[in-house]
């Protein structure tokens, strides 16, 4: 196959209630860099029953072009309709790469689409790099339970397709380019070809706590906490800083927090402004989820704990003494 | 109902350690296990059979020792097992794997439902299920936590990141399964012994009708691993270790406030 026939970096923008998913905005930010490096256009693709609001939103995301497919059959995601629409688009425009968020829908669609287009798909990527020599994208993802990172390329076929985990990249600041090209494609999927019919959806009961993926400050606690009563002081620190509590897997296994608060390989990837790791050893499965935080503080009594290798501030000491003093001093300095 | 379950034998990643000197993975002595979510997929299939009747076949693509995983499946409710094993399958990515599995499914013919795990422990892609569905032109539903039959089609409860969704899905269909409702059952002494005596059908590449050799193994793969490495920690930034932990806490507060981090 002649790779030079394939051009432009596409981001499939997933909508929830008409708004772009957080991961899609993060991807647009990163894909912009790749498009600049490869000298291609950055194209956002929207499939929806009602796309107008999203078109406005995405126009501010530093894109060159937006391709929109609208129709009633796209009201709810279905593998058949969405794969059909994207297949038509890919065949018409021949993008060199297509990024999707590693959401439930993204992970449902990317492999199906790749098999239909007979091309490669890379799942759950956490790093992207455009190699100017080979002109291939190098996708890096954790494997073997996070013990190993594998770099994968799709060198023989196009488009290069892959899903990228939420929280790895930062959404770009709003930029509106001049002359954004908005292309409306009329693609209707025959209803009788849609084999899965949406019946109903119930959102998980949400607590009022801040979601860790949205928090600017995270106080993360691990096995250094021996019982539930000991959590109070960390909660106090989180509240003082306007942040959220996150945990390691053993804490979830104890049943003290839900997996929604778990950071790492089998939990969420987070990149807050400040991450304070308390009583966390720093196993690769945990650090896989937090190394892109802006500032990392680790508090651990064991000076050889691996977490210190990631820390901007490494506090060696008993966290049950460090944290109360930290709270006290912050209050004093800030006059709270 | 004719049911197929795709299972893979994987290294137990909980047991994998990194060599502190060379920084590479120590794979020796790491036990091979039935991929945990495939055990859940099998449980879903067996419950489905118990409710609606039918027959459960398990299939695996892998080295000869994957036979162990298949026997384990038979001991907890599978009726037949097929192992496709051949050097030509080696180094397959998900596309080449799903192609080989789907061609075998075609030859075995007539499956109404194909269950897969949501993802494997080693590759962690979750791509093989949807790709099998595409090769066979089957319907697909991913992340299922409950599967029922309702007037000729499936009613599937999906466990999604933010909630739960119910969909109606027509047959034939590939379903990928999450753990929640499908805790695998244990075999009995008797079922284990029976499983050991059971004949497992072994197929090489040439025994799969119409298999295109260019679409399997490394040559059929569209992706390639170019590099793998163990994630490494760097050097700690500033180390704070005052005489007492309390002093360290206070020092940290000052540093953070001075640097306008908080
Ligand atoms: C496939 C797989 C996926 C996984 N996914 C995840 C994941 O997503 N997220 C995750 O977190 N883990 C995950 N794990 C588990 C991971 O390997 C580690 O077991 C886990 O992260 C360890 O948690 P921890 O740091 O809280 O506990 P430990 O490793 O037990 O560390 C506790 C630390 O607390 C320190 N400590 C104890 N008391 C004090 C004190 N008073 N003051 C200060 N320090 C103290 C100790 O020195 C120690 O360093 C996964 C494992 C596998 C195999
Ligand atoms: N070699 C294989 N043999 C049989 N089934 C497999 C194989 N690889 C993957 N699968 C199935 O596909 C699912 C997803 O695998 P993966 O895409 O590797 O995460 C697994 O849970 C299995 O059900």
Descriptive account of the structure:
- The complex is a heterodimer of chains A (336) and B (262).
- Chain A is an alpha/beta fold and 336 residues long.
- Chain A has eight helices and 18 strands.
- In chain A, strands 7-11-6-1-4-5-12 form a seven-stranded parallel sheet, with helices on both faces.
- In chain A, a hairpin with a 2-residue loop joins β2 (15-16) and β3.
- In chain A, α3 packs across α4 and α5 (232-240) runs parallel beside α8.
- Chain A is elongated.
- The mean pLDDT of chain A is 95.
- By secondary structure, chain B is of the alpha/beta class.
- Chain B has two domains: 2-215, HUPs (Rossmann fold, 3-Layer(aba) Sandwich), CATH 3.40.50.620; 232-262.
- Chain B has helices at residues 36-52, 67-75, 94-108, 128-136, 189-197, 217-220, 245-258; strands at 2-6, 9-11, 17-18, 25-26, 32-34, 55-61, 80-84, 113-117, 139-150, 153-159, 163-169, 173-177, 201-203, 224-229, 238-240.
- Chain B is globular, with a radius of gyration of 23 Å.
- The N and C termini of chain B lie far apart (61 Å).
- The model of chain B has no long low-confidence stretch (mean pLDDT 95).
- At the A-B interface, α4, β7, β9, β10 and β13 of A face α3, α4, β9, β11 and β14 of B.
- The complex binds flavin-adenine dinucleotide (FAD) and adenosine monophosphate (AMP).
- Flavin-adenine dinucleotide (FAD) is lined by residues 145-146, 222-224, 248-250, 262-267, 279-281, 283, 285-286, 299-302, 305, 318-320 of chain A.
How would you briefly describe this protein structure?
Chain A has 336 residues and is an alpha/beta fold. Chain A is built from eight helices and 18 strands. Chain B has seven helices and 15 strands.
């Amino acid at each position: 196959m002649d790779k030079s026939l394939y051009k432009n970096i596409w981001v499939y923008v997933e909508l929830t209630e008409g708004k772009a998913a957080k991961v899609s905005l993060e991807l647009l930010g990163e894909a912009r860099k790749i498009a600049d490096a490869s000298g291609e256009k950055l194209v956002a693709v929207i499939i929806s029953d009602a796309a107008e609001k999203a078109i406005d939103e995405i126009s501010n995301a530093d894109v060159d072009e937006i391709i929109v497919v609208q129709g009633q059959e796209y009201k709810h995601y279905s593998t058949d309709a969405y794969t059909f629409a994207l297949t038509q688009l890919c065949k018409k425009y021949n993008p060199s790469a297509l990024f999707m968020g590693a959401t439930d829908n993204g992970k449902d669609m990317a492999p199906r689409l790749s098999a239909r287009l007979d091309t490669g798909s890379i799942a759950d990527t956490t790093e992207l790099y455009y190699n100017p020599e080979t002109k291939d994208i190098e996708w890096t993802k954790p494997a073997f339970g996070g013990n190993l990172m594998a770099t994968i390329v799709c060198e023989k076929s196009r488009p290069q397709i892959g899903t990228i985990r939420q929280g790895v990249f930062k959404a770009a600041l709003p930029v509106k380019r001049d002359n954004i090209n908005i292309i409306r494609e009329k693609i209707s999927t025959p209803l009788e070809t849609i084999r899965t019919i949406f019946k109903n959806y119930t959102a998980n009961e949400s607590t009022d706590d801040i979601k860790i993926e949205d928090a600017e400050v995270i106080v993360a606690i691990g096995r250094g906490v021996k019982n539930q009563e000991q959590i109070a002081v960390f909660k106090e620190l989180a509240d003082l800083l306007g942040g959220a509590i996150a945990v390691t897997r053993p804490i979830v296994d104890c049943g003290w927090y839900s997996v929604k608060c778990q950071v790492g390989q089998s939990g969420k990837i987070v990149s807050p402004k400040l991450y304070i790791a308390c009583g966390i050893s720093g196993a690769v499965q945990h650090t896989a989820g937090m190394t892109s935080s802006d500032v990392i503080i680790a508090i651990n009594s064991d000076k050889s704990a691996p977490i210190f290798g990631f820390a901007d501030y490494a506090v060696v000491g008993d966290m049950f003494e460090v944290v109360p003093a930290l709270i006290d001093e912050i209050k004093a300095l800030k006059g709270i | 109902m004719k049911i197929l379950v795709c299972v893979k034998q994987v290294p137990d990643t909980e047991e994998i350690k990194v060599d502190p000197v060379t920084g590479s993975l120590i794979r020796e002595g790491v036990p091979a296990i039935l991929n945990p979510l495939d055990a859940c997929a099998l449980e879903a299939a067996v419950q489905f059979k118990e409710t609606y009747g039918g027959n459960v076949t398990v299939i695996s693509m892998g080295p000869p020792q994957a036979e162990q995983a298949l026997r384990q499946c038979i001991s907890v409710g599978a009726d037949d097992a097929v192992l496709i094993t051949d050097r030509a399958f080696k180094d397959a990515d998900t596309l080449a794997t799903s192609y080989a599995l789907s061609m075998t499914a075609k030859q075995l013919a007539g499956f109404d439902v194909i269950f897969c795990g949501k993802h494997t422990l080693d590759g962690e892609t979750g791509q093989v299920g949807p790709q099998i569905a595409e090769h066979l032109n089957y319907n697909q539903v991913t992340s299922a936590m409950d599967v029922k039959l309702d007037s000729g089609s499936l009613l599937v409860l999906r466990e999604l990141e933010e909630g739960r969704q119910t969909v109606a899905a027509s047959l034939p269909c590939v379903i990928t399964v999450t753990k929640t409702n499908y805790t695998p059952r244990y075999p009995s002494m008797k079922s284990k012994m029976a499983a050991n005596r059971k004949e497992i059908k072994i197929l090489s590449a040439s025994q799969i009708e119409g298999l295109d050799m260019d679409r399997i193994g490394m040559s059929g793969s569209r992706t390639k691993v170019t590099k793998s490495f163990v994630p490494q920690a760097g050097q700690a930034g500033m180390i704070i270790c005052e005489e007492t932990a309390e002093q360290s806490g206070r020092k940290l507060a000052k540093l953070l406030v001075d640097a306008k981090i908080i």
